[in-house]
Amino acid sequence: MYCTSTALFFTEPARHFYSNMYVLNQYYEWPKTRSQYNIFFKETLRLPDFWKELSKKMVFSMVAAGGDTAVKLSAWQYIYGSTWSPNDYADWNSYKHLICAWAAITPTCWTGIPFENAKRAYYADKTWPAELRRNYTSPTNALMRIPIEEGPYYLMRGGLPIATSQWMFWVTYLTLYTWCKNKFFFLWVYNDFNYDYCKAINMGFSFGVASAVGYPCYYIREMVDLWPKERGGHCTWNNSYR
Asked: Measured on CA atoms in the order 98, 100, 104, 107, is the torsion positive or negative?
C-alpha cells in the first residue's frame, strides 16, 4: 500500500500532463526542436483548469486507493498472513500462494467498479448538452451523488470486464510476488544482496506479468465505452454491443 499511494503522486500527474499534451496536439503539431518543446510544455501547463483538474484527480486516486486497493490488500493480509511458512527456508507448499490469492481476491475483485464508473460518469457528463448535465464538480462528487440520485446499481453497470481484469491482475500479482519472495530468500539472507533491490525487481516483474494478464479484459471495457458504435448501439452480429 505504501508503494501504491506513493506511486500515485508520480503516475497521476504524468498521465494528466500527457492527456493535456494530447489535447493541445489536436490544435498544434508536435514540437520538433528543444525550444518548441519548451514552449509546448509551458502552454500545456497553462491550459484552462490544468491545476484544478490535477488536484481533483489526485484526491480521487487516493480515495479509490483506500476503497479498492486497500480492501484487496487487507483481505490478502488477513488470509495469507494467517498461514505459516518456515523461516529462511523455501516453503514446499507452492499452491498456498495461489489458493490464498483466490480466496482474497474473488470476494473483493468488484471493489474498483464504482470508482471507475464514477470517474467515467464525471468526464462523460461534460460532453452532454447543458440542460442534460448533472454538473458533477469532481469524480469524488460523482461517486457520492450517483448512489443517491441514480441508485447504487448505477455504479456497478458494465462492471464485469473490470472485475475480471482486477481478478486476473491481483491473483497473478500476489501469487507471483509471494512465490518469488519465498523461493529466492537466499539472495538477501545468505548472499547479502540488498533486500530493497530484490524486492523492487520482484515487484516490477510480478506487476509486469500481472498487467499483461489483466489488461485484455480492461481493453474490452475501453472498446465498449469509448469506441464508435454502429447506429442503434448494436454490433454487426445483431446483438447487444455491451
From this structure: positive
- State pTM to two decimals: 0.82
Write phi, then psi, for 234 (nearest 5 degrees): -105, 155
Per-residue confidence band for 229, with pLDDT thresholds at 50, 70 and 90: low
Residue 184: CA count within 13 A, CB half-sphere: 15
Question: Cβ(217)–Cβ(168) under 8 Å?
Answer: yes
Q: What is the pLDDT of residues 94-134, one digit of tens each?
A: 788 999 999 999 999 999 999 999 998 998 888 888 888 89
The single residue listed with the C-alpha cell 473490470 is: 162
Residues 38 and 99 in one domain: no
130 and 33 within one domain? no
**Single-letter amino acid code for the residue at 30:** W
- The residue range of the domain holding 1 is 1-63
> What pLDDT score does 182 carry?
86
